[in-house]
Structures are given as C-alpha cells and as structure tokens.
Amino acid sequence: MTGRMTAMTYLPAPAESRLLGKSGLTVSPIAWGMWRFAGDDVAAARARIEAALAAGVTLFDTADIYGPDNGEPFGAAEKLLGRVFAEDRALRNRMVIATKGGIEMGTPYNSGAAYIEAAIDASLQRLGADHVELWQIHRPDMLTHPAEVARALEKAHAAGKIGAVGVSNYTVSQAAALMAFLPMPLVSHQPEFSALKLDPLNDGLFDQAMTHDVAVLAWSPLGGGRIADPQDARSLRVAAALDAKAIEYGVSRSAAAYSWIMAHPARPIPIVGTQNPARIAEIPDALKPRWTRADWYAVLVASLGENLP
After folding, report:
1. Annotated catalytic, 115?
2. What tens digit of pLDDT does each residue of 8-26 get?
3. For 231-253, how does the pLDDT look when each residue is reduced to its tens digit (9 = 90+)?
C-alpha cells in the first residue's frame, strides 16, 4: 500500500502567478520570448502580445541583440515593441518587461560600466519607456570586474531605470562573484534548460537559485526545436516520454515539455518562443499535466539514455 501511495503522489503544480525572486514582482509561471519578434506589421505584433496576455502571460522577455538573427538591425525587437506601446500605452501597464544587454556587435561581450549605462538608455529609448522591470546581462564579459558591473547596475537601479537585475548564461561562480558586490538581490538566472539540455540540474545553477531565491528563466525549453521535431535517437526517446504525459492530459508535446520544466523545485519559468497566435493561446495547457516522481525521472532517463544509479 505504501509503495502504491508513493507512486501516485504528485509533485506540486505550478501556481498561476508567482514572485520573481526577491524583486517583489508577481509574474506568470511561463514567459513569452521575443527572439523572433520581427517585421514591420505593428498590428500583427500587437496581436501576438494580446494573445500572450489573453493566455495569462505577464512576463515578456526581449533583448537589445534581438534583430540581427532575423536579418534586422540591432535593437529591432525592442523597437517593434516600442511601436506597439506607442499605439496603446495600456498594454505596457499589463506587462513585466525583461530585457538584456551586454552583447556588442563584433566584440562580442561588453559589461563595462559605460557600455551598460549606454545599453540601458538605448533600450529604454527604443521601448519608449522610462524603466524596465528587469534588466539582465545577456552574456558574461570576462574582461570586466564584477565590482564594476555591480556599480553600473546599482547606478541604473538608483536612477529608476531598472527595477531589478539578473544574469543570462552566467556560470554559478560568475553569478556568485557578481552577487558578492551587488547591494541589491540578484533576481534572475537565465540559462538554457530543457529535457535535452540538462546542465542546470548538475552544474549547481538550480541549487544556487533555490539557495538564494533567484528566479530561473529557461530559454530554448523545446531544445532548439528538437523536442517538437525529433530527428535523432535521443530526441526521439525524450519525445516519446513526453508524449506519454501529453496523451494522458490531452495536451501537446510542447505543453508537456514546458510542464516538465516547471515541475522542478527551482520552479523554472520556460520562455515560450512561438510567434503563432494560435500556439500562444495554448500556453495555459502547460499548467494541466501533473507529474509523479517516476514520470518526471522517466523523461530524465530518456534524455540520459541510461538508468540512474
């Protein structure tokens, strides 16, 4: 009887809203990402944002570098978002905006104080905003002392330009070094994490996040498309394991993949990147599946390709 009861005990379900680390901000458990937020059609761009808001999303992730990957200029995604806000300021008030900086074309990374200050000002200008709720360093700059980074972030925070600070693609030790000099909390870590990218489980990042109450924003939660369209043996194993949960709850494989991420006690926030309004509308499906430990570990084992010790 005890074994059966244990097998049917579910991991905690994600709440419909949650605090973003120690920021004091309340956000959705799923974010919408703007890496592919592109084009010149403001009405279509607004429709995507409204679809995300209708789906319960309040956390929107962008970056100043989003543009060149789409054949557009540096800052294009932020500028498009700013054009949407110019048409309807009420939309801005319903969103928690997270943007990033620190990638300098041709350098490639710059977290020097002067660059951070200029990058934040430029992002605000493109967005047509006087502040963003969360500003994150996009990639670590090995040539800037963390004390200098901290001073620049503190200055922007004191000026009211940024509400909270975070890091993206930082190692655990890099984040710890910055935290040692920051006078305010580090609010977020943004690593790549999915059922096919497991590093945060083992490199200490989730442990650090749980220890210091740092929110985890998981980018590429579908493994760069390999979960949605598996081609190799590993991806096919993971897809099959996720499909078992998807079928059980009548949701898509993608929804099951997001759900698997959110089941971890670090409470990672998957950043959904689809730009299709119909698929954006399906985001709430990710809150439906419930996971037993056995189910969750089955996906992990499928990804590893071997049984756990």
Report:
1. no
2. 799 999 999 999 999 999 9
3. 999 999 999 999 999 999 999 99
Backbone phi, psi, residue 190, to 5°: -125, 90
Its pTM surpasses 0.85: yes
- 235-to-135, 199, 281 alpha-carbon distances in Å: 33, 16, 25
Give the whole-angstrom CA distance, residue 283 versus residue 286: 6
Active-site entry in 66, 109, 115, 258: 66
All structural domains of the chain, each given as residue ranges with its CATH number in brackets, are: 17-228+252-289 (3.20.20.100)
Asked if 153 and 116 count as a contact pair (C-beta separation under 8 A), the reply is: yes
